[in-house]
């Protein structure tokens, strides 16, 4: 009986091994679970960062605060982060750190660059506007799907 229970736990661990972890309410993505996270969450704001980047370190507390607030409110919007020095998603253009991109569920599957204030209020305005307030250039999610 104990062996069967341990086997079930081991199999469950293998199935869930690549599910995104969570740090301070922020999903931690890797190249191997990036597509899964996009499929699982209707609206996803992703910070592409480098561990050595001072701007990324400065952003972390405010980003975590926004993630916690959204989660507490039961929002469909989730915040995530990906270490771009260890995980490269070819179709996602990252030229500097941190780079923030919004992946909304929409008919045209457009990816929206976030260039607004790096504050709780800035994130809130951007996300409540559907990615309009504080947006930069758009990318097509089809490019992401073709790269996989």
TrEMBL record:
Domain Thioredoxin: 6-132
GO cellular component term, pick one: external side of plasma membrane
Leading EC class: isomerase
Pfam families the UniProt entry points to: Thioredoxin
Any GO BP annotation: response to endoplasmic reticulum stress
Keyword hit for Repeat: yes
GO MF term list: protein disulfide isomerase activity
Disordered as annotated region, ranges: 128-148
UniProt signal peptide: 1-17
Location within or outside the cell: Endoplasmic reticulum lumen
SUPFAM superfamilies in UniProt: Thioredoxin-like (SSF52833)
Keywords on record: Disulfide bond, Endoplasmic reticulum, Isomerase, Redox-active center, Repeat, Signal
PROSITE patterns reported for this sequence: THIOREDOXIN_1, THIOREDOXIN_2
Chief location bin: endoplasmic reticulum
InterPro entries xrefs: PDI_thioredoxin-like_dom, Thioredoxin-like_sf, Thioredoxin_CS, Thioredoxin_domain
Segments of skewed composition (Acidic residues): 135-148
Reaction(s) catalysed (UniProt annotation): Catalyzes the rearrangement of -S-S- bonds in proteins
Keyword GTP-binding among UniProt keywords: no
EC identifiers of the protein: 5.3.4.1
Entry similarity comment: Belongs to the protein disulfide isomerase family.
Name of the protein in question: protein disulfide-isomerase
